[in-house]
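Record filed here:
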Amino acid sequence: QEMEGILEVAVIPIPDEILGNAIKALVVLKSGFALTGKDLLLHCRKVLEDFAVPKYFEFRESLPKNPSGKIDTLILKQEAQQSYLAMEENYGIDPGAAKGTRQNETGKLHA
């Protein structure tokens, strides 16, 4: 079900210490709209089964496209993997290891 203010969304799996993989939603807002991760989470909880609700949300200006104009999820998955490896290397932690943590749009963890 669509949510007002969303231009486009891609969902990708990302590594998670507890779940193995978790869902991350990459969101591009329509011009003039201001939504938060909490807004998206509440909407997703209303319209999706629990197992399908993203654990992470990231706001972007745009999403990469392949030559046919579709969202290039391969690039997004590669970016997520690089980000995950950087978190492990820089902080010596697994981004999903602490129960109840989330990544905000800057990629930093918060409870």
About this structure: The two ends are 28 Å apart (CA to CA). The chain has a mean pLDDT of 83. The longest helix spans residues 73-91.
